[in-house]
Specification:
Blueprint: H1 8-20, E1 26-32, H2 42-47, E2 53-58, H3 65-79, E3 82-85, H4 91-94, H5 96-104, H6 106-111, E4 115-121, H7 127-135, E5 153-156, E6 161-165, H8 177-186, H9 196-210, H10 212-218, H11 228-239, H12 250-263, H13 274-305, H14 309-332
Parallel strand pairs: 1-2, 1-4, 2-3, 4-6
Antiparallel strand pairs: 5-6
Bound molecules: guanosine-5'-triphosphate and magnesium ion.
């Protein structure tokens, strides 16, 4: 599945983020705690330079806490960034962000009137919700679908901190194909821009392997089927997702599965672990190396092919003919 969802406003938003970056003292990248790797924007990592960066793992209430702890350790030790888990149901916890901003910018705070903090993140991850929590009032528009915030908004917290809310952005080329499915499964992509069935099958395959007990209980299955198709068929029968004639409605059950995953009804689920991602990175590097080797092989084959004895023979004859012709011309002069 490829993702064709990089609407015009995101292009503009990414450009604006880059442009206002030099007025910003600290970047707060809001990640989805269920997919900290897939929701991290490589463009932001590239442009941020050595500006302090705080990674907030939001929607922690929906993520698997053990896996989130693994991600925090990974991000802090390997990437040297400060992390914090947040969720909209725990405002007191989110307010720690203010302290973290102050301590990361302590030197700067002494010399300027206010600290500028920019909040970035993928669509629908909860940036505006978080800003409302920090501002203690509804100041930024929120909603359960991607692309609610359409332009940058400056919010003065009134305590020496100014926040910039930004529209959610994805990036034009998502390298890891698994990330596309996980972003879609988590709700970062508009429903109209994705194939429910593809994403549903991907999620089903992952869920029966990673969370077999949760799936068995949620769909009241005696035995958990070992393929995603068999699981979706069994779940569809249990939920009455059937078409006329009693055939299973796979589209409907994929929709149900994704809705329940996104709303947390399936339980606290993370869609990727540091170990999974490390393996995928090796696979991606191998695939890239194979592509280069295949290209070199094709090029060599083409070169060799053009030097078959018959071709060589014809080439020599052509050269001889040309030389003879040029000799005749010179003699004729
Ligand atoms: N379960 C859960 N839902 C959350 C959390 N934070 C935000 N939400 C919900 O996620 C949805 C998106 O929130 P927004 O704050 O509008 O997200 P955003 O990142 O500003 O989205 P865009 O402006 O579209 O990029 C809303 O329905 C929020 O109620 C959280 O911690 N847990
Ligand atoms: Mg928003």
């Amino acid at each position: 599945m490829s993702l064709h969802w990089f609407p015009g406003h995101m292009h503009k938003a990414l450009k604006e983020i880059k442009e206002s970056l030099n007025q910003v003292d600290i970047l707060i990248e809001v990640l989805d705690a269920r997919i900290p790797y897939s929701s991290e924007n490589p463009e932001i990592a590239r442009i941020r330079g050595d500006k302090p960066c705080l990674k907030v793992l939001n929607k922690f209430d929906l993520a698997d806490p053990d896996i989130t702890a693994q991600w925090q350790a990974h991000l802090e030790s390997e990437r040297g960034v400060t992390t914090l888990t947040t969720s909209n149901g725990n405002p007191a916890n989110s307010k720690q962000i203010i302290q973290l901003i102050r301590s990361a910018c302590a030197q700067k705070a002494a010399s300027v009137k206010s600290i500028n903090a920019m909040i970035t993140g993928i669509p629908n991850v909860g940036k505006s919700t978080l800003i409302n929590i920090l501002a203690e009032r509804t100041i930024a528009k929120t909603g359960n679908e991607p692309a609610i915030t359409k332009s940058q908004q400056r919010i003065n917290l009134g305590s020496g901190i100014v926040l910039y809310d930004t529209p959610g952005v994805l990036w034009p080329k998502i390298e890891n194909p698994n990330s596309i499915y996980r972003l879609a499964a988590s709700g970062a992509v508009k429903n109209t821009a994705m194939e429910y069935d593809d994403v549903g099958f991907y999620a089903a395959d992952y869920l029966i392997k990673a969370y077999p007990q949760l799936m068995k209980e949620r769909f009241k299955l005696e035995e958990l089927p070992d393929t995603e198709l068999a699981f979706l068929e069994a779940a569809a029968k249990k939920r009455g997702a059937l078409m006329s004639g009693g055939r299973v409605n796979l589209h409907k059950i994929c929709e149900v599965l994704l809705n329940e995953l996104q709303s947390g009804k399936l339980g606290r689920i993370s869609l990727e672990t540091p170990a999974m991602v490390a393996e995928e990175k090796i696979e991606m590097a191998e695939a890239a190396a194979k592509k280069i080797a295949d290209k070199a092989r094709r090029k060599q084959k083409f070169k060799d092919g053009s030097l078959t004895p018959e071709k060589q023979d014809r080439k020599e004859k052509r050269t001889e003919k040309r030389e003879a012709q040029s000799k005749r011309m010179k003699q004729g002069r």
